[in-house]
Each structure stands twice: as C-alpha cells, then as structure tokens.
Design a protein that fits this description.
By secondary structure, the protein is mainly alpha-helical. It is built from twelve helices and no strands.
C-alpha cells in the first residue's frame, strides 16, 4: 500500500512537471514574450483578486518576481516533502508534508514583504529630498521624480521602476504613483500619490508640499520605532507562545516518535491531535492579528 502511494506521488510530480513544460512550450513564443513585457507596466485593478492573481500580487510586493517562474521547483519541493513525510510518519507525516510547506511559504512571503516595505519607507524621505533639490534646480516635477528614482537605493529603486515603466508607456505620473501605492498598500505611498495628484490638478508649490511630506514620513517612522520599542516584550511573548507547542511536537518526533504515532493510530488520539492542531492554528492567527494591530 505504501509503495503504491509513493509511486502515485512520483507520478503526480512527473506529470505536473511535464504538463507545465508543455504549457510553457506552447505559450512562450516571441509575440507572447513581448506582450508579457508590455503588460507588466499596465496599472492593475485595485480590487482584491482571488486565486493566482492574489498570489502573484503577494510575490511582486515581496520582490520575489512571479511565482509561475519557479512553479516546477515549488511543486517538486512540495511533493518531495509529502513523500518524505509519508515514508517517515505515515498519514501524520503526509499531512505535515502537505500543510507545513504552504505555511512556511506564506510566512516567508509576509516576512519578506514587511522587511522590504519597511526599508522602502526608510528610503522614501531621501528620494523626496532629492526630488525637492531637483525641483529647485529647475527641473519639472515629472523629471525630478523620475531622476530621483534612478538615484534611489535598493529596494526602493527597483520597486519604483514600476512607476517609470508606466510613465514611459504613456500613463500620467500621478496615476503611475497611485498604481504603485495601491500595490504596496502603505499610507506613506498613498500620501505621496495624493500630493502629486493634487499638484497635477490644482497646481501649487510642489517643493513645499514634498518638504511637508518628508517631515510627516520621518515623524511617522520615529513614532513607529518608539511603538516597537514599547511593545517589544509583548511581541516576544506572543512569538514564544506560538512556537512553544510546535517546538514540543518537534522534540517528541525526534526523541520518541512512537509516542505521537501511537496516538495517531488510535481514534481518540487522532481526534485529540486534530483538535490540538486546529487550536494551535487559531491561536497563531489570533496572535498574528494582535501583533498586526500594534
């Protein structure tokens, strides 16, 4: 029985990779590559999209490119984890092999996005200051913003290359910055887009507007740092509470794997383990929402 399941998983792995390669062979002609390159710069809809579009949006915000570029590798790792989990711990290991890679990938993408957008916000005042100095030297607002993007540091320069691409395709600068702000969903970028839109529609002193925005962003960043310092103990306690049950399960699997496997082979033990897993998941979600609120 175990051999049949192993062969089935291997068959699924090979079949998935072959179908993916066949699909790429049909759709990666010269015209398709050109259309794909052009479509990257088009503004996206602001509505939340389910399924693959939402996953692609999360990967783009985290700076990981499109997930379809690494689909064969991801499927291989996922099916390999299921195979190893089943070979080591039967059904319980198979369940871990299915859920654990997905959870770890979700946490990694979220962590990568938070760290990346935090660095971008730290670099935003420098970009705005460079824009102000370019305006005072005689450049137009559009040229000053685009020149500041070229002079910005990574990752802000890479992320804002989306704005340059949209402008070169004919999108107005306020609309391009608004599209960028809607992608990353941060108030600092929304304020930047709103300021450009107001200046574009009603005119005014763009240098003074950007200087006020620089002061506002720096004050918000300072307040956020003070809040993180004041709530550091609370966040550390939440992390310990979330990792402690998982660490104990890993310790039991390493030291005495028959303990949990014996519970899994019993009907009452299965119910207890499933209930513990559901409660742990709900607890981690609750702690995660609480941490996001502070």
């Amino acid at each position: 029985m175990k051999g049949a399941i192993v062969l089935g998983l291997i068959f699924m792995l090979l079949m998935g990779m072959s179908l993916y390669l066949f699909y790429r062979g049909l759709n990666k002609g010269a015209n398709e590559r050109i259309m794909t390159r052009l479509s990257l710069g088009q503004p996206e809809a602001t509505v939340t999209k389910p399924g693959v579009a939402r996953i692609e949006r999360a990967f783009l915000r985290a700076g990981l490119g499109r997930p379809t570029d690494r689909l064969p590798l991801a499927l291989s790792i996922w099916l390999t984890s299921m195979l190893l989990g089943y070979l080591l711990y039967d059904g319980f290991g198979l369940a871990l092999g299915i859920l654990l890679p997905v959870i770890l990938l979700r946490l990694f993408v979220s962590f990568r996005y938070q760290r990346r957008v935090r660095r971008m916000i730290q670099q935003l005042p420098q970009l705005l200051d460079h824009t102000v100095r370019s305006l005072k030297s005689g450049r137009t607002l559009g040229d000053a913003v685009l020149h500041s993007i070229d002079a910005a540091s990574y990752p802000l320069s890479e992320a804002m290359s989306r704005i340059k691409r949209n402008v070169h395709l004919g999108v107005t600068l306020p609309d391009a910055v608004q599209d960028f702000a809607e992608l990353y969903e941060r108030e600092e970028f929304q304020l930047f887009a709103l300021g450009l839109r107001v200046n574009h529609r009603y005119g005014g002193n763009a240098s003074e507007l950007l200087e006020n925005l620089i002061r506002l962003v720096r004050e918000r960043e300072q307040a956020a740092r003070q809040l993180r310092a004041m709530t550091g103990e609370t966040r550390l306690t939440a992390v310990v509470l979330a990792l402690l049950p998982v660490s104990l399960v890993g310790y039991f699997l390493l030291v005495n794997p028959s303990y949990l496997l014996h519970m899994w082979q019993d009907d009452t033990g299965q119910k207890m383990l499933l209930a513990a897993f559901i409660m742990q998941t709900l607890g981690c979600l609750a702690l995660w929402r609480m941490l996001r609120s502070i």
